[in-house]
Amino acid sequence: MSEQGCSRKPELSQDGELKAVQFRPKQAVSSLDAEQRSQAGFNTMDDSVNNLCANEFAPTKISYGHVYWRFLVNSYDERVWRWRALIFILLAVLGLTVLLCATIGPARIGFGEVLTMLLRRLPWAGSLIPRGDWPDNYETIVLQMRLSRVILAALVGAGLAASGVVLQGLLLNPMADPYILGISQGAALGATAAMLSGISMQVLGIYAVPLVAFAAGLGTSIMVYNLARVGHKVQMSTLLLAGIAVGLFLSAITSYAMITSGQNVHQILFWMIGGFAGRGWDHVKVLLPYIFIGYTLMHLSARKLNVILLGEEPAQHLGIDVEKMKKVLLVAATLTTASAVAVSGVIAFVGLIVPHAVRLMVGPDHRVLLPTAALTGAIFLIMADALARVAAAPEEIPVGIITALCGGPFFIYLLRKKNDPGF
């Protein structure tokens, strides 16, 4: 760039990052008097700041610097700080939701007592906080039973919501959810087989149903992918249809097994609707690594997913290996979905309604959409589980019923909105 010239706007690199540009620093422009600024095309000092790159014929004695910070703040970093503020708010809401929902249950335990119990567990502050006047079993109820359940609900909600975001973007279908590839139906069949056989229960104990369900869900996704593959390419529309067909077939087998078995039908039905009854820290330990790995893969691929949304050919022209990205994102979505279904059963609509609701707030940029959807999904499922515990107390209903009651009307709204934009 010449000494007198100036970029009219910053260049974008292939992955969407801003490249460094050169233009007049604020000090150089502010050193001009009113007549010189007028000659350069700047009427006011604000115009000098906002239009630094608007005039190619500025006085030659203005020195040039590197990237002007305020220009970046006004164009790019302003959005970044707004997104960071939103994520910080969601993290605060998530923490508050965890504490509030840990107070819900047959035993009346206050918010302050729950907070004190948690603070006393901190290694650097536990000895400084006096123990409250509560029964000895309250800490067991909160820390071993309620908190583990709340954390598990947060992980499942975050995983399903993030998977929904990725699959809706990858399949270019707003009605897609994490179960559309037949993963849930495969996991349900595996869990049904584990419950009815009893052999795996004797060998693996409480891990039997989650492990068998995870393996079955993972195997189903591999089968669907191979059915949809033609040569070395996978058409997303074919993948979608293959997932629906395989899911219906596996659901029929599961229903037949339930009808003919005559035993454990209530347990199987409860699991297929989805819930967190009887879950503890062991299930959290089983789920956490899969959610972490799956979400990390999704987040690292967010920029490239933004480009893929433009179309496969434009993405290839920009240097992105589209087929490789499809495999990576499908593996990530499968890991999170299969592991979530394995520990909680089939919880419907979380991966459908949360991505749409968050997209209305933050837009389609997956770099922001993924973390905000994950946090919102965690908050939503924690609250749904809390409602499931108290809606029919002292009985407990599956949390999948609550999410279906919320998701059904929202799904109808999406259908009407798609057919009638003025709705």
Quick summary:
InterPro entries: ABC_BtuC-like (IPR037294), ABC_transptr_permease_BtuC (IPR000522). The chain has helices spanning 26-30, 34-39, 45-50, 69-101, 111-120, 137-171, 183-197, 199-204, 208-228, 236-261, 265-273, 281-300, 302-308, 312-317, 322-344, 350-362, 366-390, 399-419, and strands spanning 229-230, 233-234.
Kindly describe this structure.
The structure is a single chain. With 423 residues, the protein is mainly α. It folds into two domains: 1-67, no CATH class; 88-419, ABC transporter involved in vitamin B12 uptake, BtuC. The protein is built from 18 helices and two strands. A two-stranded antiparallel ribbon has the order 1-2. Strand 1 (229-230) and strand 2 form a beta hairpin. Helix 6 (137-171) packs across helix 16. The protein is globular, with a radius of gyration of 27 Å. The model is unreliable at 1-13, 15-33 and 35-75 (pLDDT under 50).
